[in-house]
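Risk register update: the risk of archive-format incompatibility is retired. Evidence:
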Amino acid sequence: MRIKPDITGNGTNLYSSLESSDSAYGNLTGTSMASPNVMGTLLLLQQHFKNKTQHFMKAATLKALACHTADDAGNVRSGCDFWLGIAQW
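Archived output:
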């Protein structure tokens, strides 16, 4: 049985910091780039919400916001698919 992700993110050719020095940057690819991309975006949404309301969104609210504002990465007419997950940011 396969579990599909609800949210996926771009993990290809992202400009990011490198481990070689404190000032090194370069392009990286892979799931190690996709996960921080999505998490960083969600964290920025939480921070903005807290700045406006003085409290954080519930996890379910944040997930709903992410899922319902994402773009479908596959064949839009087919809806959700196991190959790409439900949506991509």
